[in-house]
Amino acid sequence: MIDAKINLDKVGELLELADCRALSKIEVLSGGWANSNYLVTCDDGTKVVLKIWREKIPDAVQEMNSGIDWIAKHGVPTPAPLKLKNGESMIVVDGFAWILLPFINAPWISQDVASLKSLGLAMAGLHAVPNAGHFGTHYSMGVDIWPELFERAESEDKWSPFLRMLEEEFIKLDEKIPLNLPKGVIHGDLFQDNILGHPGEVLAILDFEEVCFNILAIDLVVAFIGCCWIDEKPVEELWFSLLSGYESVRPLSPEERAALPELYRYANLSVAAWRYRKFILDEEDSEHAGRYLLMMKRLEESVEFLTEIRK
Known about the structure:
Phosphorylase Kinase, domain 1, Aminoglycoside 3'-phosphotransferase, Chain: A, domain 2, two-stranded antiparallel ribbon, 16% strand, five-stranded antiparallel β-sheet, alpha+beta
């Protein structure tokens, strides 16, 4: 099934601008909560991915595309948007940015020690990318969005026990997380469905829409949340494989290691806050309304091993 509202003429126009053959078939791709992704097959059998950005304005998408080009040029495995004949990397249809991406025929990353080690290596490569003014500091999946939630709760009379708890945590943030932790370019959303690979090897990191210049260790704890839990239980060996791959390139400082438990806590709360905004404040009666509670439940599990050092 495809979105009945999608303009197939515009799909054909975009394919022509990208010097691709004519449209033969279009299918919905799974994954992603905020945007629409389609697998497009051309009449010569080649495949590309059409991405329609539903929650970013075109100017922000254009800026992000420039950042992704920069990241890809520095060796990070990620599919950069196809360049069009007019020199752009997108078209705007009904106010939404449309881009084409190379199709990578691979599943999401496996949850095995070799794959997580490969992810750690890839993450360290990303963290070595110089900023050069391409990336801002606002982390739209982190604590930076919490004040917006509090403002909405006040103006829309939607305070809840969760938001009150989040407000208390926000006040304590500067006390809990050191301000001088190393910063750099982070992905910010390294969940399993944003990473493609074969067993033991990361092929591509996708969806850099949260990319920013922020605390590097945030990516580690988010990847732990997104890739190192099985059946809602943390798997120590997966964490240490992720960390060993990363530290083979960039060892953590003692300050970073000591901060991991608090960074993990705030990353968990941030994912919960993002889901709360998306599935409760923005969407009434969403079938995913309880998803934020899964992250809260994870905080009940012991993760003391995060600060352990293993050779």
